Every structure is written in structure tokens, then in C-alpha cells.
Amino acid sequence: xxxxxxxxxxxxxxxxxxxxxxxxxxxxxxxxxxxxxxxxxxxxxxxxxxxxxxxxxxxxxxxxxxxxxxxxxxxxxxxxxxxxxxxxxxxxxxxxxxxxxxxxxxxxxxxxxxxxxxxxxxxxxxxxxxxxxxxxxxxxxxxxxxxxxxxxxxxxxxxxxxxxxxxxxxxxxxxxxxxxxxxxxxxxxxxxxxxxxxxxxxxxxxxxxxxxxxxxxxxxxxxxxxxxxxxxxxxxxxxxxxxxxxxxxxxxx
Length: 253
Prior knowledge:
With 253 residues, the chain is mostly helical. Helix content is 68%, strand content 0%. It is built from 14 helices and no strands. It has helices at 2-12, 23-28, 34-41, 45-76, 82-93, 101-110, 117-121, 128-138, 144-151, 156-167, 169-184, 188-193, 202-206, 217-247.
């Protein structure tokens, strides 16, 4: 896992790294930050970075809120058609996202959302995986917490926001990091739904370093390193919460 990151960083610190014939020459050659300076000064790099951040943040917030609502309803409420609804969520989980590529593109065209933020955010603002993750977690949360609050006169929304959400913080952290990571690195659908640099995200923008005859490895690796930096920082900050969320419910006292 570490070696690809090391390789990416090494190439990003070399001017024209493709000219070196072997690994030893690449290691002992002069290091430079020129590729990073060029990437940051690029006319469109800041736009790509902003678009990726905007899309990832809004999709993450949407998933945390809406998946929490749907997961809570499935875990605590009984309603007509619940079995069908639950089966449909599990069914969607086994369908690869590439299968819906053409229907979703046609829908975006029909709604005139091509080359807009709507097409980059709304289709992913709630996901079956997020619903399933929260639903399974809430099934292990004691219902007595809600019943005690209800006896004390707490309303439904007060119980939801002041009891259920704080208790679910570990799994919401996992869902948030997973969603942010997935959307930050998403390439296929942003590539399909955008045709101008004003709405391109970082993964799409970085592909323009790939030429027909050659690849600008130095600038490509520099841009990729900058793109990976927010994800690394998020993981270092929230790694304890992520691990706690992944093992939550696996042990019982």
C-alpha cells in the first residue's frame, strides 16, 4: 500500500522522470518542486480542486443525513411495503454502478443537467450501501434509550437528533469517510456528465496530463499527490473513529 504512494511522490519530485533509465538514476537525481508549482499555477487546477471538494462535501452530508433517516425508519418503524422496500435496497446493492450508466446519462440529458453540479451531486446524495450500513448498526442500539426519552416527553425529532444521531456517530463517521473518499476519487460519471473545465473534478482534470503520444508523468504525479492529500489527512484524523465504527456491534459484553 505504501509503495505506490512512495512511487507517486518520487516521480512528482523529479523533472521529466521518464528520461531516467533505471531506478537508481531516478533516486540519486535532483529533487525539485517545479511540478507542484506548475500544477498549482495551472489555470484550471484550482477549479478542479474546488469542484471535487464541493461535490464530495455535499454528497457526504446528504448521505449522512438521508441514509440515517432511512436506516432509522427501517430499524424502528413498521410500515406497509417494508419487506419490498428492504428487498429492493438489497437488490440494488448487487447491481454494478456501470449497469445504470446509460439510463442515468439519458436521464441527465432529459433533465438538462449535463454539465451542472446537479448531475454530480443529486444521483449520489443517498446510497443503498449507506442505508444498509446504518440500518444494521441501529438494529444493535437498545430501543430502551428511545423509550426512556419518550416517557420523559421528548418528541420524535428530539429523540432522533439528540439521542440516535450521537449514538450513531461511529458508523456515521465511517459512512462519511467512505462516501467522501468514493466521490473524491470518482472518475466515470463526472467524466460522462461534464464537458467543460468549469465543472470537471480532479480525477477528470488529471486525465488531461495523458497525451496521445506521451504522458506528462511529473505533473500527473504532482497533481495526484495533491489530490490524495485531503484523503490522507482525513484518515489520520478519524482513523480511531473508523476502526471503532467498523467493529461496533461485533463484540457484546
